[in-house]
Amino acid sequence: DSGVTQTPKHLITATGQRVTLRCSPRSGDLSVYWYQQSLDQGLQFLIQYYNGEERAKGNILERFSAQQFPDLHSELNLSSLELGDSALYFCASSKNTGELFFGEGSRLTVL
Amino acid sequence: GQSLEQPSEVTAVEGAIVQINCTYQTSGFYGLSWYQQHDGGAPTFLSYNALDGLEETGRFSSFLSRSDSYGYLLLQELQMKDSASYFCAGEYSGGGADGLTFGKGTHLIIQP
After folding, report:
1. pLDDT digit string (tens) for B34-88?
2. Residues of chain A positioned with their CB less than 8 A from the CB of B33
3. B95 interaction partners in chain A (CB closer than 8 Å)
C-alpha cells in the first residue's frame, strides 16, 4: 500500500460525458502528479501540483483540467470524453521528484 | 521535450541475471529512477541514481553513467514474480516542464 488513494477504481461512461477522478496523497506529501497510461503505453505526464499551485504541465489536453485543494487532495476533470481517452489514470505523490508513490489508478472506459 | 529509450521486451531464465538498459537526453538531466509495474498494478519505485555508479538494493541494482547518457537496471537471481514491466524515468531540472519523464517500459518475460 503506497498510501495514495484514488477513486473511483473503475469508471465506464459515454462519449461526450464528463468525469472527475479523485486523489488523496500520502500524508505529508505536498506534490501531486497525474499520469495517463493507455494500453501497452508508457506513463504520460499530465500535470503536477505543489501545495495547491500548478507546478508543471505536460501533454494535458485542453478538455482536461485539475486542481489541488487546501487539504492537498487533487481532482482531475475530464470533459467531452472521446473513445481515445480510455486509459488508466494514475495519481502519484512525493516529497521529492526522484521517488513517486503511485495510487492504484482509475481505469476509465469510454464507450 | 525529454525522451528516454529502453528496449520494449527482454526475455530471461529463472535464476539468471538480466540487464535493462536506458538511454536519455542530457539537457537539464538531474537523475534517473526505475519503477516496476505488474500487469494492472501501480508502478512502484525501485531505485534512484543522481550520481555516476552503482546503487544496490537487494537483488536489484541500478547504474548511471552521465558521460554516456546511459543507465541500467540489473536484476539478479531472477524469480517468476519479477515478470513485470520496468520503466526508467528521468528527472529534469530547469522548470521541470515535463515532471518526471518515463520511458515506454521494458516488458520482462521470465522463463522457467
Report:
1. 999 999 899 999 999 989 999 998 999 999 999 999 999 999 999 999 999 999 9
2. 98-100
3. 56
